Structure formats: C-alpha cells, structure tokens
Amino acid sequence: MLKGEHISKAYKEQLVLNDLSISLASGEIYGLIGPSGSGKTTLIKVLLGLEKLTKGEVALFGRKPSISAFHHLGYMAQSDALYEELTCKENLDFFATIQGLRGRQRKERMMAVAKMVHLENDLQKRVLHFSGGMKRRLSLACALLHQPKLYILDEPTVGLDPIIRQSLWSLFHQLKTEGATIIVTTHVMDEVYRCDRVGLLQSGKLLAEGSPDDLLQTYQVDNIEAIFMREEEGVQC
Ligand code: ADP
User: Fold this and answer.
1) What Cα–Cα distance (Å) separates residue 199 from each residue in 72, 153, 168?
2) GO terms for molecular function, please (predicted)?
C-alpha cells in the first residue's frame, strides 16, 4: 500500500531524512513518532510525492506517487488547508465536490463526517472564527469525506483537548475496524500506545520500529521516551 526504501532527503546542506525505509501493512495504525524537527512531515511529504527524494524509492499503491493517488487516500496536512472566509459547511461542500461526491451521497457524507469530528453544531460558522482545534477537526473531516482506504494524518491531534483527542483516537480505531490503514504522526508520547506499530524518528533516522509492547521489551524500558534517551546517550541495546 505504502512503501519507502532507503529514503534520503536533503534541503541544501541539511540532511533531513537519512537512508530510511518504511513499509505499511494493510489494516494497521502506524505511528510515526519523534520530536519536533525530526523529519516526520518531510517523510510524509516524500511518501506522497509532494517533495522530491534526494535518494531512494517510494511506492504508493504499488506505483510512483502521483496526483491521482489523492483520490484514494485521505491526507491531512500539518497546516490546515481550509478557506477561512467560508463556513464549515461550505468547506466540506468544496472538498466533497473535489472528491467527486454528488447529490444525496454528498450531503450524507458531509453530515456524517461533521458528526464524527463533533462539528455538527458549527456547520454555519465561518472558519475564520474557529479555534485551532476546530480547524484541525475540520481538516480531518475533509480527509474522511470520500471514505478512502488509506489515511495519512500529519499531527491530527495537535492542539486538541484530551476528550476530543480520545474521541478521535476511537474514530481512528473504528476506521481501522472498517478496513482502513492509517499512518499518523505525533510528538505526543502517550499516543504511541494507541498504535499497532510505531517508528521512532530522530534526526531523520528510524531509531526503532515495532509494536509498542515489543519495543518496551526489546529495549527493557518502561516507556518509549526512554528509548529516545538511550539512543541519545549512545547506549547499545
Ligand atoms: P517534524 O515534522 O518532525 O517537526 P520536519 O519534517 O517539519 O520535522 O522538519 C525536519 C527538518 O527539515 C527541520 O530542521 C526543518 O527545519 C527542515 N525543513 C523542513 N522543510 C524544509 C524546507 N522546505 N526547506 C528547508 N528546510 C526544511
């Protein structure tokens, strides 16, 4: 579904991704975890073909990433690509049209996704007056509209209060139950434990990869932060 091999990406002199390989298994929630600046967003962008690789190869749905792949995936970027002058409903309507939804199906999906992200009572509000968290939720709703099988979510829960965050994670698990595959980035460590598998990213390298339980066992630590600390201190496993 999504695979990257020996990916390197440099911006001028700075090597942001350093010979990194990643592969998503169908039906899993894969968490890309790492501190700010570790390269998560850059990795997402190269996997989508939005940034050119310096080295390596990416296969999205078995082929080189292209714009047509966006019809088959739900992408939520780190910065909200919303129209602030439009209302919540108008934004949903716009993105539903782009995704080719028509007639009754369009209306039904718009209402369904608004409910999923708890914005059903804010449909008539202009996005200009939305909080940062509401914008994140609307961006997520836009990514959910066309019921894709692959979701690529860059920091979907940043700036959200714990209750909404919890409900979005429940939603991700529900999507997975319905057959979706999800790659999600976060720097919030407690979200690690909600993923089936995680990749720990530091300075553009994948430090470790596996299920949260396996990682804790392999590294003999009580929490995932400790793996980052150990690697920083140069402790060999
Ligand atoms: P993260 O998502 O983990 O916070 P990013 O992928 O956004 O990390 O950034 C990783 C590094 O790449 C940072 O040092 C950032 O400044 C740099 N970077 C990202 N995008 C660009 C760009 N377009 N031009 C130059 N440097 C960039």
Assistant:
1) 24, 15, 21
2) ATP binding
